[in-house]
Amino acid sequence: MSILARIRAHGGDLTFDQWRPTLVRGRLDDAAIAWVKHHRDAVMTEAWPAYDAWCERAAILEFDAGMTRAEAEAAAYAEVAA
User: Can you tell me whether residue 22 is helix, strand or coil?
Assistant: First the structure.
């Protein structure tokens, strides 16, 4: 069973505002919330297939183009969402 399926089986969900996720708790207990936070990259990769490309592009823009992290994340989102 996928991570998202397990979250949803407990009444939770993962929603997005562009690249920013929000975990809807549902019936997830504190230990489950901690597990999801600890495995954030795996959860994000499953929920948003472009996550890895977005991370890589944001890092390139931040370090090579001299953008702030917030600017780089926004610009990377615009590129991978296009």
Answer: strand
CB 51 within 8 Å of CB 14: no
Residue 1 DSSP label: -
Quote the CA–CA distance of 68 and 39 in Å, as a whole number.
25
The pLDDT of residue 71: 98
Extract the tokens encoding 9.
């089986």
- Yes or no: say if 53 and 80 are a contact pair by the CB < 8 Å rule: yes
- What are the tens digits of pLDDT across the range 29-41? 999 999 999 999 9
Task: Identify the H or E element spanning 13.
Answer: strand 13-17
Both tokens assigned to 48: 């948003």
